[in-house]
């Protein structure tokens, strides 16, 4: 889990089928030592794990990514320049699993867009 060490939740609002939150990234986390020294960038896998953690918490169950229909990394996140990131996760229960749409952004800058299926 990345929550509590890689990021902390500073604000969160949840309603049925949706969770919106703001997280604060820990720029001194060891991940940034390797990704990349002197030029830290949030790895895409960490963005995806953050979405997964918020979805699991919102649905109170363990979730696993089954299919990514769209996973676009639009801008890099430097935790020193942008320590706060907004997360929007929308989900809908369907026969095949949880249909999810998620966005990581801050103000007018979008970092990642995701659409896919979790089970």
From TrEMBL:
Domain ApeI dehydratase-like: 12-100
InterPro entries (UniProt xref): ApeI-like, HotDog_dom_sf
A single GO molecular function term of this UniProt record: lyase activity
Listed name of the protein: 3-hydroxyacyl-[acyl-carrier-protein] dehydratase
């Amino acid at each position: 889990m990345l929550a509590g060490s890689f990021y902390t939740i500073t604000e969160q609002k949840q309603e049925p089928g949706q969770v919106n939150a703001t997280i604060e990234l820990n720029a001194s986390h060891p991940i940034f030592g390797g990704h990349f020294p002197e030029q830290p960038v949030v790895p895409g896998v960490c963005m995806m794990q953050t979405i997964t953690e918020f979805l699991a918490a919102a649905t109170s169950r363990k979730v696993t990514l089954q299919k990514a229909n769209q996973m676009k990394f639009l801008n890099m996140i430097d935790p020193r320049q942008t320590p706060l990131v907004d997360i929007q996760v929308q989900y809908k229960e369907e026969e095949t699993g949880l249909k999810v749409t998620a966005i990581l952004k801050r103000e007018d800058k979008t970092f990642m867009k995701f659409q896919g299926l979790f089970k």
